[in-house]
Write a structure and sequence with these properties.
The protein contains 19 helices and 11 strands. By secondary structure, the chain is α+β, with helices and mostly antiparallel strands. The strands form 4 sheets. The protein has a 4-stranded mixed sheet, sandwiched between helices. Strands 4-3-9 form a 3-stranded antiparallel sheet, with no helix packed on it. A two-stranded antiparallel sheet has the order 1-2. A hairpin with a 2-residue loop joins strand 7 and strand 8 (about 370). The longest helix is centred in the middle third of the chain and has 44 residues, at about 210-255.
Length: about 450
């Protein structure tokens, strides 16, 4: 595993530390220097006395050395933090913050890592592209903390800007229409003012007064033009605002997170282009029944990249769970702990035969791997999902009296359809094209928007 470190290179000087043959080349471009790093055990780290640096440069160089040779993330993080307290110059602060962000990412302290990278970019001139291309920050870039921070970073894009761009992409000719109709409306409005002045002069009479009938005719034409153009502009502006509200809700859906196990938590945004989620929400009995009803079309649904996201609105806390619910919860706990014995038939057979289970073949596709595109995706924070679903039901006009509902999402993250009761699995198979079908590339996400 590689851990990338930003080289400390004050202007006009050579790199302060060179750890490999590739270091000088990367340092000359102002890019991070690559070091191999693995975290040592806390017990080993506690045996050696803590080094007390004498300057920010010393702290950063020592931190990088600790990271490279001793493979001690904890000590490296400490030294980088100390370096930031020793009055570093801009180059030193940039290197310390970037290195700190990389080390914290390895420790899976994503909020702190995001803060460090954000400071390096906004306060000390680190280029965002460096962080976007760094393989050692891949885990961080998959996190929602990073997504939210992009809108605050120099060179990044805010959620509102993304929503605006997606809204414009749904109606690419609306902006040119607004410009055209807006310009014509301004011209017609100006002409109407001129005609009104001429009409006043015609009514007053006189040898140089305009002809009244001609003036009235021009007045009627310009008034009609202003009315028609105003309607066209109002229609486009209103439709843009309505679609912007829809897109904003869809961006909120993309922020909801999915728990893939093994400490992997990805926002639903990462599944765009690879998965068509069907959110099934309601009572446990309803959700399990709805998913079971899909078994007859399981292969057809998987060919269409359909995955279900079950959201169960649990019973009140003071209600005793029945034995079946307790068993489900117990299975879930075993699954989180990595314990084999519930639902992993292949693993049990392999264990019984005394052989290791074969690893799944994965290939990177759009930020996720094939193994991530499961039939059943588990919500990471059920309360966030529930809040979004309740708002979506109200937004789309679904009956709030009916707790059970479904929401089908397209590959591009747009909500295609929703309704109360169980999803119409057969209808979805008939209407959704295969993942590799040309219709998917041309029409996915087009249709009734709610």
């Amino acid at each position: 595993m590689l851990a990338r470190r930003a080289s400390l290179q004050p202007r006009g000087s050579r790199p302060c530390f060179v750890a490999s043959r590739v270091a000088p080349r990367l340092a000359s471009r102002g890019l991070p220097v690559v070091f191999a790093a693995k975290q040592s055990s806390p017990a080993a780290a506690s045996k050696s006395p803590q080094y007390q640096p004498t300057s920010a440069r010393d702290a950063i160089e020592r931190g990088t050395e600790v990271f490279k040779k001793q493979n001690n993330l904890d000590e490296a993080v400490r030294l980088y933090r100390v370096g930031l307290e020793l009055q570093p110059n801009d180059d030193e602060a940039r290197a310390a913050l970037y290195n700190l962000g990389c080390a914290l990412t390895k420790q899976k302290k994503f909020a702190e890592a995001t803060e460090a990278i954000e400071r390096a970019i906004n306060d000390y001139g680190l280029k965002l592209i460096v962080a976007l291309r760094d393989d050692d920050l891949q885990l961080l870039r998959e996190r929602r903390e990073w997504m939210d921070a992009l809108g605050r970073m120099k060179g990044g894009m805010s959620r509102q800007t993304k929503a605006d761009l997606r809204t414009e992409a749904k109606a690419p000719f609306r902006l040119p229409r607004l410009i055209l109709f807006g310009g014509l409306l301004a011209g017609a409005g100006l002409g109407l003012l001129v005609i009104l002045a001429r009409l006043a002069a015609a009514l007053q009479g006189g040898p140089d007064a305009p002809e009244l009938n001609e003036t009235l005719t021009n007045l009627g034409i310009n008034t009609a033009a202003v009315a028609v153009l105003s309607f066209l502009v109002y229609r486009d502006v209103s439709s843009k605002q309505a679609e912007l509200r829809v897109t904003t809700r869809e961006e909120g859906l993309g922020r909801l997170q999915v728990d893939l196990g093994k400490d992997r938590v990805l926002p639903l945004l990462k599944f765009r282009g690879q998965v068509r989620p069907v959110i099934v929400a309601g009572s446990r009995t309803f959700v399990e029944k709805a998913i079971k009803e899909a078994e007859g079309q399981y292969l057809n649904l998987r060919d269409r990249a359909v995955s279900v996201v079950p959201i169960i609105f649990e019973k009140a806390a003071n209600v005793e769970l029945d034995p079946e619910d307790k068993l489900r919860l117990l299975k879930k706990e075993f699954a989180k702990d990595g314990t084999k014995g519930f639902g992993d038939e292949a693993a049990r057979k392999a264990a019984a035969a005394g052989a290791e289970p074969k690893p799944k073949k994965v290939s990177v596709l759009g930020g996720i791997v094939d193994a991530d595109k499961k039939w059943r995706l588990e919500a990471y924070d059920a309360d966030e999902w529930k809040a979004w679903i309740l708002e979506q039901k109200e937004f789309s006009g679904l009956s709030t009296a009916e707790p059970n509902c479904y929401i089908q999402v397209q590959l591009d993250g747009t909500v295609r359809t929703s309704g109360t009761g169980s999803p119409p699995w057969d209808k979805l198979v008939d209407e959704l094209p295969l993942l590799n079908d040309v219709r998917t590339r041309l029409t996915d996400g087009v249709g009734p928007q709610e």
